[in-house]
Design a protein that fits this description.
The chain is α+β, with helices and mostly antiparallel strands. The protein is built from four helices and five strands, in the order ββββαβααα. Strand 1 (2-11) and strand 2 form a beta hairpin.
C-alpha cells in the first residue's frame, strides 16, 4: 500500500520535511516512489509547496495520506480541492486556484502578515 507521508531532512533541531509517496513498509527516511513537495514548519507561517497534480494522481490511485500530511494538506486547502476533483471539477481550474493560493501565502510570508 502506498502512503503519502513526511520524510525528515535538515540539521539536528532544524527539521524540514519532504512530502513523498512511499510504500507503507519502507522506513521514514528510506526508499520512496516520488517527491510531491516540501513542508517547513519553522517559518511563520509554515512554508508548504506541493505538486498538486501528482498528489491528486497518487490519491486517486489509492494512496492514503498520513495524519500529519492530512493536517498539512488541510491547512493548504489541498484536501478540499481533491474532494472537488473527485466530484468532476477540471484539473486546470483547481491548479490555477492552487497557484493563486500559494502566491497569496508567499506574499503574506514576505510581508509578515
Amino acid at each position: 500500500m502506498v502512503r503519502i507521508r513526511l520524510r525528515r531532512i535538515g540539521l539536528k533541531g532544524q527539521p524540514t520535511y519532504r512530502i513523498v509517496a512511499a510504500d507503507k513498509e519502507s522506513p521514514r527516511d528510506g526508499r520512496f516512489l516520488e517527491i510531491l513537495g516540501f513542508y517547513n514548519p519553522r517559518t511563520q507561517p509554515a512554508t508548504i509547496h506541493v505538486k498538486e497534480d501528482r498528489a491528486f494522481h497518487w490519491m486517486k490511485n489509492g494512496a492514503l495520506p498520513t495524519e500529519s500530511v492530512e493536517q498539512v494538506f488541510k491547512s493548504a486547502g489541498i484536501l478540499d480541492r481533491f474532494e472537488r476533483f473527485k466530484k468532476g471539477e477540471s484539473m486546470e481550474t483547481l491548479l490555477k486556484e492552487a497557484e493563486e493560493a500559494e502566491t497569496k501565502r508567499g506574499a503574506s510570508v514576505k510581508t509578515g502578515k
